[in-house]
Task: structure prediction
Amino acid sequence: MSALIGSREFRAMLAAAVARVREGSDYLSQLDAAGGDGDHGTTMRRAMSEIEKTLATHSEARLHELIGQVGWELLSIDGGATGPLLGSFFLGIAEEVGERSSLDTRGLAGAFEAGGARVRKQSKAQAGDKTMLDALLPALIALRAAADAGKDPAQALGAAAEAAARGAEATRDWLPKFGKARFSGERTRGYPDPGATSLAMIFAGFSAGIHITSPSNPDGQTSRGHLMLKKAEKEIVCVAQFIAKEGKENELLQALHRLIAPTHQEAGYLRYELNQAIDNPRAITFIEKFRSQEDFDFHCNTPYIKGFFDNVAPPLMEGVTVTLYKEILP
Result:
């Protein structure tokens, strides 16, 4: 990991954000269907395609040129306010970066704050209105706090991603005050805001992306084009083995599947598997991998995981065994 964010590092951050949002795009559409057209996931996939195209066509661009081009491409996508707001965010970052070739943590915080300020000029929303600002503003506060505490960019982006995830989750029981969702009122209660959730996924990607690459792999990709994450020393594998109650197998599977998309927002999440035994459909195994024990502890304390084990799971399962492992061979 670098103590500075230059073009190489920001490219990796963008590529990881693209991957994370694409993984969660169906979930975003499900959230949007509660109060809108159900197309936010589709809009975000288009946005990620534009970012990916920019990465491919601007491989030699300087830092501000790369970020600015991303902003201009996002401005042009259809899908309500998503394009203008995300485009404004990146254009604000690019303007603050200026001619600098790299940013330390303070510079990164300042650039992201400039992006946030530009978003706020575009939107009349305030914190608590159930919009993307409810994830963005906590992320910016966490980023600045990390910079002031002398943290490196990876630590700062990790803190920002966690703050964005908490901010998005906090919108679950709020009523929206902007966009089409405001006309749906109570229908949206119980669903996190899709814009805040997609923003949290972007920050989760930024945090994951800053952990990638080696000097021999400057683009942070394998030959198959997938992100190459830098190995942490203490990656945690959680294996949860459930026994569903008779006739409750499908309900338990559906409940477990609903945990996947919000988990994608977490900065420390690496992968998951959901398996069902062939000879005993009541036996369901959920395997998750996290960057560190700290990341796993954060996951366990999220409202959706606590809510699952406290309220959702008990009527559906006879029991569960959770075991933590450290990875020996990849």
Remarks:
- The beta strands are 236-244, 269-276, 283-290, 317-326.
- Confidence is low (pLDDT under 50) at residues 213-232.
- The longest helix spans residues 40-57.
- The chain has two domains: 7-209, 236-326.
